[in-house]
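[step 3/7] inverse_fold.run input=structure_tokens len=486
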């Protein structure tokens, strides 16, 4: 059987026409909620609702069947009860529909009867060459087509990160967190039970997608480990692949099997597979986002030598400890760098790495010290602690005041302007020296500003910045080991 159609997911992620089967007028049903998400998201295409009992839904003319639609249909989204899905998919096959998303559960995750239903669904799809997502899925997102075919009202902005998740709940929640931090996504797929399309099929597509710089994957289990390894190797040669593996304990494996029917496999096997493919393993879901964000925006460090700039000494000590534990070298400063900083800071500064700014308030000197640090030939990356985010705490405190004095308001505005200036200067230094710089704000509520050059990578804790640089350097080492220059 010809299976080349599995490798072209364009009709799924770049459809021109969608048949929405199971559309509903009831705001409490997925047939209304998901259709609303698609319409609110301003999908760049045409949507045809399907419901044999209605004439109009959400202002759109309704068809009785997919067979009644004039012209080609690229994608069918099926939100009917599970038992109806195989016959609906047969109509889709007759119509020549190229891809389909089967949202409802009630398949292999629910025992033998559901597994038989899923097998029939897969048989119909594979015979017709229909690229089938699910069943038991929360849907997909496509940045290029502004397609929010999702159960929850998540609205990530388009961007360079693609994501495939074997848990729709976890996947959409992570995209929501990414949305809050303004991390942009090129595409997302909740792979569900993977009756036809599997995790590695999405990885292949995103790996070849020119709009994607980094690929994320949440994996619980794999049916075809060899296929995953082969595809992950290809992806990692071209762009970073960041993976978080769920189901690493007996309890986790049991939970994974119960909600998607996945075979979780052993921790040792997955560790070996990730090492072999160059996949970057995240320790937790939020760390996966941090890694993807940094890898999509920053150059890779050339070596493990790190410079640390801190507004106060204690955080510098903590960060130095984290670096050493992670195998990163807190590099000695050159004599030339020390002489430069001697002219910028009081004589009692640390005179070494980490550079302690000893509480000085001259923000222009902060940037001058950072440039001296990142320009040092012994330093190939930098972590900047507490230099940005100073206005955040003051702003929060002002919100509790009844009419803040004009002088206080002016002070906060000046602080915010300096934060913007510093972030813009950091971005300029990254471009100038082609070395990664990560800010640490030390305030959970801080969000980096948008500047003319984009947004600075600013995390909330030193160990998060250290982990990101550690994994970026290990990825550099992997690329060098296979002869790829980046």
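[step 3/7] decode complete -> sequence:
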């Amino acid at each position: 059987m010809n299976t080349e159609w599995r490798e072209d997911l364009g009709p799924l992620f770049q459809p021109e026409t969608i048949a929405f089967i199971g559309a509903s007028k009831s705001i409490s049903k997925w047939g209304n909620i998901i259709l609303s998400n698609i319409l609110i998201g301003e999908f760049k295409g045409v949507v045809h609702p399907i419901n044999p009992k209605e004439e109009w839904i959400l202002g759109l003319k309704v068809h009785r069947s997919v067979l009644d639609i004039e012209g080609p249909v690229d994608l069918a989204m099926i939100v009917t009860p599970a038992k109806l899905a195989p016959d609906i998919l047969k109509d889709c096959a007759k119509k020549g529909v190229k891809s389909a998303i089967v949202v409802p559960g009630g398949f292999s995750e629910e025992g033998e009867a559901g597994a038989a239903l899923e097998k029939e669904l897969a048989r119909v799809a594979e015979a017709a060459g229909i690229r089938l997502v699910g069943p038991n899925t929360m849907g997909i997102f496509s940045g290029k087509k502004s397609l929010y075919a999702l159960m929850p009202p998540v609205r990530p902005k388009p961007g360079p990160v693609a994501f495939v998740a074997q848990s729709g709940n976890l996947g959409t929640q992570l995209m929501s967190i990414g949305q809050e931090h303004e991390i942009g996504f090129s595409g997302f797929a909740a792979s569900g039970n993977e009756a036809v399309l599997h995790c590695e099929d999405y990885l292949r597509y995103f790996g070849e997608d020119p709009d994607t710089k980094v690929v994320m994957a949440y994996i619980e289990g794999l049916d075809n480990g060899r296929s995953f390894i082969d595809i992950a190797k290809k992806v990692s040669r071209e762009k970073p692949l960041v993976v978080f593996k769920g189901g690493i304990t007996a309890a986790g494996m049991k939970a994974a099997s119960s909600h998607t029917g996945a075979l979780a496999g052993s921790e040792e096997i997955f560790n070996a597979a990730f090492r072999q493919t160059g996949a970057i393993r995240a320790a937790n879901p939020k760390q996966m986002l941090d890694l993807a964000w940094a890898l999509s925006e920053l150059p890779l460090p050339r070596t493990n030598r790190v410079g640390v700039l801190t507004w106060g000494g204690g955080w510098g000590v903590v960060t130095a400890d984290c670096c050493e534990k992670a195998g990163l070298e807190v590099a000695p400063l050159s004599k030339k760098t020390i002489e430069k900083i001697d002219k910028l800071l009081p004589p009692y500064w640390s005179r070494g790495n980490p550079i302690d700014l000893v509480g000085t308030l001259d923000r222009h000197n902060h940037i001058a010290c950072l440039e001296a640090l990142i320009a040092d030939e012994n330093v190939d990356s930098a972590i900047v602690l507490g230099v940005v985010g100073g206005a955040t705490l003051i702003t929060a405190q002002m919100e509790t005041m009844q009419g803040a004095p004009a002088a206080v308001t002016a002070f906060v505005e000046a602080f915010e302007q300096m934060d913007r200036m510093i972030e813009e200067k950091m971005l300029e230094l990254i471009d100038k020296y082609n070395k990664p710089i990560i800010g640490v704000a030390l305030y959970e509520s801080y969000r980096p500003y948008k500047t003319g050059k984009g947004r600075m990578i600013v995390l909330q804790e030193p160990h998060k910045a250290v982990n990101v640089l550690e994994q970026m350097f290990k990825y550099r080492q992997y690329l060098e080991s296979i002869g790829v220059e980046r």
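[step 4/7] annotate
The domain at 300-481 is CATH 3.40.50.261 (Rossmann fold).
The two ends are 39 Å apart (CA to CA).
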